[in-house]
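During the reporting period the student researcher (J.K.) took over the structure-prediction task from the postdoctoral fellow and processed the backlog of single-chain submissions. One of the processed entries is reproduced below for the supervisory committee.
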Amino acid sequence: MSKEMQEHYFSIVAKANLLDVVIEKGFILPATLEKCIAELDDIDQMEIRKAYKNGND
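J.K. obtained the following structure tokens:
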């Protein structure tokens, strides 16, 4: 993996980890989270829902 791709990957993982913490700590209400997910395109919505259904953050 190129250095640029590594940096991009680590940035995405860090953002995902931050979101996991915010959700886990209850800083985002479930209704707010659902509204935010609804703003994503269909493919992203399916991936997010699949990840949380499977317990994969």
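The committee noted the following: The helical segments are 3-24, 30-38, 42-53.
J.K. will present the remaining backlog at the next meeting.
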